[in-house]
TrEMBL record, chains A, B:
Pfam family membership, one: Pyridox_ox_2
InterPro entries: Pyridox_Oxase-rel (IPR024747), Split_barrel_FMN-bd (IPR012349)
Name of the molecule in the record: Pyridoxamine 5'-phosphate oxidase family protein
SUPFAM superfamilies, per database record: FMN-binding split barrel
Signal peptide, first to last residue: none
PANTHER family: 5-NITROIMIDAZOLE ANTIBIOTICS RESISTANCE PROTEIN, NIMA-FAMILY-RELATED PROTEIN-RELATED, FLAVIN-NUCLEOTIDE-BINDING PROTEIN
């Protein structure tokens, strides 16, 4: 029996990585794993020829990306009619000090996802999406919250974007110098960088006796955020 | 004697923060402090109507931003003629779990800077910019390196962008719930997030006896990256 071919995003001039193509990945597994390891993205879109780059929280379901904002926001009003957008997620993993300025670099993992962003108009669909926005980060949490009001639902806009094309780019190489430069008396090193969770701060106005839910046990001081978010994602979307 | 008025970026429809305007800042001091606390940005630009959102290293001099890349890169070729661009820097500071889905949030600090990106054609200007690219992160390091070759200089493109407009947005509020929701038996907390430096990894091929330069002493395990980069910036640009 032959193996199932791995699903990949189509590649064209928009998402093809032309430089250092050995760092490029287009398969769903790599692209989705990176998307599921973060909560913050940057979205690019155009209004009257002016590009905007907006940071926002996002989440993924299958090959669809979601983000949200105020119904009044400029970004979301502009995207309501299916505007081209690019959603990018980047994790910085190190700063790299080489023996030449030219080879100074950084280790990183990034995904660029391209598609057309559309406002979700259907109320049940929007309501379900907002549930997943919270539960993707904190599995099962929505069921424990004060329910969302009609007014809150109206005040919130949710955008969905089917990923039409995507590319992941990963550098995990540390110091790479020209062969002849290794003979030089120049110090070189890799400085690792990671985003971690600090000590959780219970709200000062909690009712007495309220314990921290067991579902938050992954969010503990010192843990890497990307690992915790990947675990939370797998709990919320067991099918992947 | 009256105080000198604080310098600020002009505000118009492009950069005005319309929602939660109490989180907005336009003064040079706030905008620049945020820009100088990070190394990674996302740049938005447009090619044939398609927005791109590209992660890259950047640095600031006065009211000018710089970033670099390969002379062959799509982004940099496209920007060579003074294209509109938006450079955004975001620091995620926490995830906020409130008593309603609607008030789930995050603490963050972000800057959006707008301008027209231009390729630096002048070789001495480009060479100086690349020196600052390294020295802004690692003060004085370029003088200790193998000099940059003509070929390397040609292979590198540097873009500069005068900041025409900018806005900073800061949320540092933790949990904020509706008044009546504080009476509910629902757990709420702020989960701090920070980006820190790991244990530096000296290159395995260092010549024997090469010690770590004292100028790198700020880059030590456990320190916050934003604090270390702010210190490094102040050492490289004592005038601010």
């Amino acid at each position: 029996m032959s193996e199932q071919p791995a699903a990949s995003y189509p590649v064209d001039d928009t998402n093809r990585i032309k430089r250092r193509h050995q760092r490029a990945h287009y398969d769903h597994a790599t692209v989705h794993a990176l998307l599921d390891s973060a909560a913050l993205c940057h979205v690019s879109y155009v209004i009257d020829g002016q590009p905007y780059c907006t940071p926002t929280l996002y989440w993924r379901e299958g090959t669809t990306l979601y983000w949200h904002g105020s119904s009044a926001s400029r970004m979301l009003r502009n995207l309501s009619e299916g505007q081209p957008a690019c959603l990018t997620v980047t994790q910085l993993d190190s700063l790299v000090l080489a023996r030449s300025a030219f080879h100074h670099s950084a280790d990183y993992r990034s995904v660029m996802a391209f598609g057309h962003a559309k406002l979700i108009e259907d109320e049940p669909e929007k309501s379900r999406a907002l549930t997943m926005m919270v539960d993707r980060l904190f599995p099962g949490r929505t069921a424990t919250l004060r329910p969302t009001t009609e007014q809150e639902l109206k005040a919130t806009a949710v955008v969905s974007m089917e990923i039409e094309k995507a590319s992941a780019k990963v550098r995990a190489a540390g110091v790479i110098d020209d062969d002849e430069d290794y003979a030089l008396a120049i110090y070189a090193e890799r400085i690792p960088v990671r985003t971690v969770i600090g000590a959780p701060e219970p709200d000062s106005r909690l009712l007495p006796g309220l314990a921290r839910p067991a579902t938050l046990s992954g969010f503990n001081a010192g843990r890497r955020l990307d690992e915790v978010l990947t675990e939370a994602y797998a709990m919320s979307y067991p099918a992947g």
